[in-house]
């Protein structure tokens, strides 16, 4: 074997033109491998467990916190369906606005008074006031939450109840009284309808 010939061929191969081509080919191969692995890993995960994905979506939906309207509707529906003569019930409650929360706060008021005398004997009093308000928070693990002094619940604008059995006047009257009592709303804000 002639090492000088091998060395010359190696030098020719490693010339600037060939090195640039080799780098380009290697970069294309790396990009292709990354794209290939991302595409097939994602598609195999979705193919192998479509039920799991749907379960996760259902779990996320179930873990969602109910709004005040939804919570009230759910409680009212549950209680109305247990009444004698009433079948399935649908409830809709509209609220004026969301809850209003009044947080605790630290307020610092300061008043600075300065007296200035000029060369002619005049005296001026300068007063400046400033106020700083900070919301008081409490640490709950890794979260900071404001300390709540008072929470004002929203006013109910109206209630509609659609119930099986509401075509009976006695059942309708009992539903009407139950809704007025539990929600503490005047009668003109409550409507009861029979269900198809």
Describe this entry's structure for a reader.
The protein is 44% helix and 32% strand. By secondary structure, the chain is an alpha+beta fold. It has three domains: 3-61; 67-99 and 153-194, 2-Layer Sandwich (GMP Synthetase, Chain A, domain 3); 101-150, no CATH class. The strands form four sheets. Strands 1-8-9 form a three-stranded mixed sheet, covered by helices on one side. β3 and β4 form a beta hairpin. It is flat. It starts with a helix and ends with a strand. Mean pLDDT is 81; it is low at 46-56.
Task: Compose a concise summary of this entry.
The protein has 196 residues and is of the alpha+beta class. It has helices at residues 3-13, 16-48, 50-63, 68-81, 169-183; strands spanning 89-95, 100-103, 105-117, 123-135, 137-140, 143-146, 148-152, 156-163, 190-194.
What descriptive keywords fit this protein?
44% helix; two-stranded antiparallel ribbon; 3-stranded mixed beta sheet; flat; 196 residues; single chain; GMP Synthetase, Chain A, domain 3; Spore_III_AG; alpha+beta; Stage III sporulation protein AG; 3 domains
């Amino acid at each position: 074997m002639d090492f000088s010939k091998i060395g010359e061929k190696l030098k020719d191969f490693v010339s600037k033109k060939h090195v640039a081509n080799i780098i380009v080919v290697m970069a294309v191969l790396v990009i292709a491998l990354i794209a290939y692995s991302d595409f097939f890993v994602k598609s195999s995960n979705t193919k192998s467990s479509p039920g799991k994905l749907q379960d996760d979506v259902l779990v996320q939906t179930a873990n969602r916190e109910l709004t005040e309207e939804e919570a009230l509707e759910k409680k009212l529906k549950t209680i109305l369906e247990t009444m004698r003569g009433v079948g399935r019930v649908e409830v809709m409650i509209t609220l004026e606005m969301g809850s209003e929360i009044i947080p605790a706060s630290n307020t610092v008021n300061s008043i600075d008074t300065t007296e200035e005398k000029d060369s002619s004997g005049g005296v001026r009093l300068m007063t400046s006031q400033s106020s700083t308000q900070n919301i008081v928070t409490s640490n709950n693990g890794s979260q900071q939450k404001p300390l709540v002094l008072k929470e004002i619940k929203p006013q109910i604008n109206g209630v509609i109840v659609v119930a099986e059995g509401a075509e009976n006047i006695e059942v309708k009257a009992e539903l009407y009284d139950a809704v007025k009592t539990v929600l503490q709303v005047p009668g003109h804000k409550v409507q009861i309808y029979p269900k198809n």
